[in-house]
Amino acid sequence: MSVETKNQARDEHPIEHLLRMDRIPHIWCSTCGLGTTVRALAEALEQLEIDLNKVALVSGIGCTGRVAGYLKLDSFHTTHGRPIPFALGLHIARPDMKVIVFSGDGDLISIGGNHLIHTARRNVDITVICVNNFIYAMTGGQVGPTTPITAKSKTTPYGNYEPPFNVPWLAASSGATYVARWTALHVRRMTTAFKEAITKKGFSFVEVISPCSTLYARLNKLGTGLNLMKFYHDNSEIRHGADLGAVSIDYQSKITVGKFVDIERPTYLDNLNECHKKMFGDKYKPYGGGNGND
Amino acid sequence: MKADSGNVLTGSHYLDGNYATAEGAIAAGCKFFAGYPITPSTEIAERVSRRFPLIGGIFVQMEDELASMAAVLGASWGGTKSMTCTSGPGFSLMMENFGLGIMLETPCVLVNVQRGGPSTGLPTLPGQADMMQARWGSHGDYEVIALAPDSPQESFELAIHAFNLSEKYRMPVLIMTDECVGHMTERVVIPSAEEIDLAERRYTDKKPGEAWPFEETDDLIPPMLPVGEGHKFHVTGLTHDYRGYPIINAEAQEENVRRLVEKVRVHVDEIIWLEEEGVEGAEVVVIAYGITSRVVQPAITNARAEGIKVGQIKMVTVWPFPEKRIRELARQVKALVMVEMNYGQVYLEMNRCAAGQCETYLVGHAGGTVHNPDNIYNTIKEAVK
Fold this sequence. Notes:
The complex is a heterodimer of chains A (294) and B (385). Chain A has 294 residues and is of the alpha/beta class. Chain A is 37% helix and 15% strand. Chain A has a single domain (24-265), classed as Rossmann fold, CATH 3.40.50. Chain A has helices spanning 3-12, 34-48, 67-70, 83-93, 105-111, 113-122, 167-174, 187-199, 213-219, 225-234, 268-280; strands at residues 55-59, 74-77, 98-104, 127-132, 178-183, 204-209, 236-238, 255-262. Chain A has an 8-stranded mixed sheet with strand order 2-1-3-4-6-5-8-7, with helices on both faces. In chain A, helix 2 (34-48) packs across helix 8, helix 5 packs across helix 6 (113-122) and helix 6 (113-122) crosses helix 7. The longest helix of chain A is centred in the N-terminal third of the chain and has 15 residues, at 34-48. The relative contact order of chain A is 0.14. The model of chain A is unreliable at 290-294 (pLDDT under 50). Chain B is of the alpha/beta class. Chain B has 2 domains: 11-195, Rossmann fold; 276-384, Rossmann fold (3-Layer(aba) Sandwich). Chain B has 13 helices and 16 strands. In chain B, strands 2, 3, 4, 5, 6, 7, 8 and 14 form an 8-stranded mixed sheet that branches. In chain B, strands 11-13-12-15-16 form a 5-stranded mixed sheet, with helices on both faces. In chain B, strands 1-9 form a two-stranded antiparallel sheet. In chain B, helix 12 links the parallel strand 15 (335-340) and strand 16 (359-364). The longest helix of chain B is centred in the middle third of the chain and has 18 residues, at 152-169.
């Protein structure tokens, strides 16, 4: 994009050219954390100066699942829990493209949990952004795989008694090569994390702690979404490389944020190519090339 | 478009139905297979995983069948011909994303090597009891195309045909075979690549910014948009308009679902493939599909030896159901006999279309083995009484 067009776009709205403006206004509640998160991804894509024609976005179902409908990229709104395997197929068919999964905690950690761990294990070169609002919001506020103990939801009216997943630990122990967590108000750091995750060769994972104003905040009497967004931010503690066993989140507790994992590991296609090269020698034509940077 | 000679194992082979299905898919240009092991279908995945590396294909053994079907759709949108295979229990799981494939109008092929059910049932023995699940297994209203091969040779040929139909009608296509055909080894003649016609994917010829993923066309089949070319399109499993944008109201639902249904219904004459023999002047017509269409042969031969005029219809396509032809026949014959390895599934459609114009009989059983031809013979005798 030329500087002139870029400036013109900024006069209108900073990320207008990255949004489907014919679909705005969006369906999200005011003071939902998705606004800053989507903005951060748009900003990250712009700062990376990558060819946006070669970026695909895949979402599942839920509030966050709607992101695919608003960002102006090749975008797929799939079934509940399945954006990661859909993205795997898309990535293998088009290894020259960047494939980003943008979905919620219910979608990725509960119904899609199996796909998360196995795709991380294979180290498939995709990026997963998991917006965690501690609740099933689209369906009206039920307990989720990340709801902290004692938090109220529509299906834990007396408080939650199930231990939640420690999401970064789950991703890291499954094999993710990049794992970070920020809150929805860490806009600059979140943008950097998205940039790092997208350029990372391998399975990269970013958790974003995001306020749900309409359900989680209201059911737990935590004020407005804005209050909660600020609470998460102000009660976060930046600890890069933290011991992931200790980053679980309790009800209204301190939230450990930072870049936890940034390692190198051969990707799924690297391993596949190496195995077949060894077996077939020059008869084998390596599949796919690089990780989308070429 | 002709098949790529690098993919086609031209010559005469001795293959089982599952290997033949794999070779058909490879000849059709399939380059992505995502699957999960399940008896009696696994040999398709095994053959593909062995053959793919040197022809530029990728096989991924997924964590489950939910993921398998989702990955197949993702790869197809990436522009790669894609497939998966499974059997009963896995077919149930695949129904979720099969529905997404219908809604996103995604070409791909799903093979169900049927075994006895319900539940875990008979993993190593045949059945044909997933036929109604094939028709209605995913939620919502839609039409499907399902093929039923009767031999390894036909498994090879119908795999190619399934890919061609899926590209032509822009939808997932089912191959509903069974354990018997899957594990039966026979001669399979694979023609040269130049003798294999392949349907090319129809992409839009419009420029980015001007094209939409579900545009209205005369044939009701919208051309696809390629990823990575700047179209920056959106598709969703939600009810959507021609732009692919979600619209949650009754009008949009009517328009969207009606077209999904109509795009198959207006083309039924091109899609339906029946092989008829001795139907003209017959008193009784025996209808069967897959392995069962071979098992009916001795019964028909014996009945004819006694002077009974018996015709046979082999349904190569089971869905869409040949409604028009059955209505016609019902007015001409004394009885229609459906032979299938279940307790009445495709029979229900036959009976519905016969609409009381002739007698209808089901020769069914719960699966686990093919029919005893005597039972078919006895039903033919009863029908002409």
